[in-house]
Please model this.
Amino acid sequence: MALEYKDYYEVLGVARDASKEEIRRAYRKLAREYHPDLNQDSDAEERFKEVGEAYEVLSDPSKRERYDRLGSQWRAREQTSAGASFEDFFDRQGFDDHVRVEFGDGVFSEFFERLFGEDAARAGSGPLRGRDREAVLELSLEDAVAGGRRRLSLEDGRILEVNIPAGVREGQRIRLPGKGGAGRDGGAPGDHYLQIRLKPDPRFRRRGDDLDVDLAVAPWEAALGATVSVPTLTGTARVRVPPGSSSGRRLRLRGRGLPKQAGGHGDLHAIVRIMVPKHVSEQDRRLFEKLADESDFDPRQGQG
Model:
């Protein structure tokens, strides 16, 4: 039976000129969608393996180049130098569409193995080190600063216990020795790398190593001055609001931001936001009316 051509671009749902980042995003989305632990459909496991196989090829520049060159010829049934089509070549090998073979540390289709036969042939030439793996680890800002042990479920179903160093940064890679792909013929296992990505936080806005946080204050606190609480990555702190503070004033808390690559921490900037009650009580209304009657303050003075 003829060997089925696999269009890896179609499997991932990306264009043939897709960037490496587009391919990675498509893979992560589909791997989550078809992971057997999360999807109980009868074909989920097969689709999960297909998606992994497609990513294995398209994320590797050298494999992608070879696939684009030979895979397209296979689909078009172009003639080999011996005058036989690729389909005829595979037919003569006696392969079957549904045969699955072990390659490296994963299960791949026979089309994959034959297309990258040079890599498969190396498996009998001596010990081979396992493949390195990489995954994105998303952390909250608090978890990135505090660090600690985390239990991670990888896309291949494995569970890892990982010690996250305190103060990890966006883009930092954590190496887990020996946690990658299994070696062949006595070869050492590969490593697993975790690339840190910081999640957006509903309270804090990142500016490099510095953080901004809105600080809600009452009109009288802004006018008279006050000491109020402000949220930080490690709890709360007290900050002095100077008398006469208007909305938008920045109050800096040194060293309360994110860890810096060169050591130390950035700053936390508390931005004053003057708040008024949505529903005014009768007593508050009388006080505001008295203030409006007796105060000569004009916030629009000088605006023409």
Notes: The mean pLDDT is 80. The longest strand covers residues 210-217.
